[in-house]
Write a structure and sequence with these properties.
The C terminus is likely disordered. By secondary structure, the chain is of the alpha/beta class. The chain contains 10 helices and 10 strands. Helix 2 packs across helix 10 and helix 7 crosses helix 8.
Length: 341
């Protein structure tokens, strides 16, 4: 991809890394009742294991199909997915928001835990029969946020030319989980660590109630870090002997050289646990990957003031970037037809 992004201007009262990151996570988004009406589908990702998708049809002739993947501890109802849905809907996209295994209160659909190694789930999701007939004639794109972006990149690398996608975008993806955990465990990031632990522990308690034969309730004295939860829950469920082996084995960087789908990675230079130098290292020299870094934005913040409201710049910009890429692709196709014709 060769995309030029609009300038991100942080809201004046939310210029700092912490202000952007915390506000992006905690500010309420649009109410569910204000979202355009959608339809739910379940997709079997492996025998006996299902995920739930929420598909919203385009308001008119669809411009394209868009699949949205949330991050760690999130769901299809996460603020950033709802805002991205609205941005895409008004521009004519048909959108499917994905709940990872057990996310969004749907633990009854899957006994296994969500984690970074679930990239094989994407193939059945992307090929699922959920689209309206008119949308099936349009390009298929995906945007993954945070860990969802990392899983999307792993899928793209593992599947190469058979990814099932025409174009993809990853926002603040932790491509190297070991490095991101090291950053998350720094004293300055204690608040973010506590936020994710609370999210993960809540999900694990629900899983323990449903599946007591598989999971025990997390111990608040021991499971006070993402590392401890990964060690005792995620790594064994993912088939790894330790948290470290899981981080190494599940990281997107292991497969990114295989990416053959035009892909844009958007992130911020001040992300507290997805370092910009890590992304530069992991993306440099890979012809199908483009990295776009903005100076500020924190982790999944990107709050700016536009037309009298707080705007989620990353979501709006992702849609604009997808459309710019598809316009350029169509121009190249028309030129090729003209020359060969």
């Amino acid at each position: 991809m060769n995309i030029t992004l609009p300038l991100f201007r942080p809201f004046p009262l939310l210029r700092g890394t912490a202000a952007q990151t915390i506000s992006g996570a905690l500010l309420p988004g649009p109410a569910r009742r204000s979202l355009p009406a959608g339809e739910t589908f379940t997709v079997e990702v492996e025998p006996g294991e299902r995920v739930l998708l929420e598909r919203t049809a385009a308001p008119g002739p669809p411009r394209g199909r868009l699949v949205l993947f949330h991050g760690l501890g999130g769901s299809a109802n996460s603020r950033y997915l709802r805002l991205t849905l609205l941005a895409a809907h008004v521009r004519g996209w048909e959108v499917a928001r994905v709940n990872a295994r057990g996310a969004g209160g749907h633990e009854h659909l899957a006994r296994r835990l969500p984690h970074a190694g679930r990239w094989p789930d994407l193939a059945p999701i992307l090929s699922a029969d959920i689209w309206t007939p008119a949308a099936l004639k349009t390009p298929l794109a995906a945007v993954g946020f945070s860990l969802g972006g990392s899983i999307l990149l792993r899928h793209l690398g593992e599947t190469g030319t058979s990814s099932g996608l025409d174009v993809a975008i990853a926002v603040n993806p932790p491509t190297d989980l070991t490095r991101s955990i090291i950053e998350l465990e720094k004293p300055a990031n204690r608040l973010y660590q506590a936020y994710y632990v609370r999210k993960l522990a809540s999900g694990l308690r629900r899983m323990a109630r449903l599946y007591p034969d598989l999971y025990k309730r997390p111990d608040p004295r021991r499971h006070r870090s993402v590392r401890a939860i990964d060690e005792d829950y995620i790594a064994p469920d993912a088939g790894y002997s330790s948290a470290y082996d899981y981080w190494v084995g599940a990281s997107a960087i292991r497969a990114m050289e295989g990416v053959r789908t035009p892909t844009l990675v958007i992130s911020s230079q001040d992300d507290p646990f997805v370092p910009a130098d890590m992304l530069r290292r992991d993306i440099q020299g890979r012809p199908f990957l483009q990295l776009a870094l903005v100076p500020r934005g924190g982790h999944m913040g990107y709050l700016e003031w536009s037309r009298g409201r707080l705007r989620f710049w990353a979501g709006d910009t992702a849609i604009e970037a997808l459309e710019e890429h598809l316009r350029k692709t169509q121009i190249h196709l028309r030129r090729a037809v003209s020359v060969t014709g």
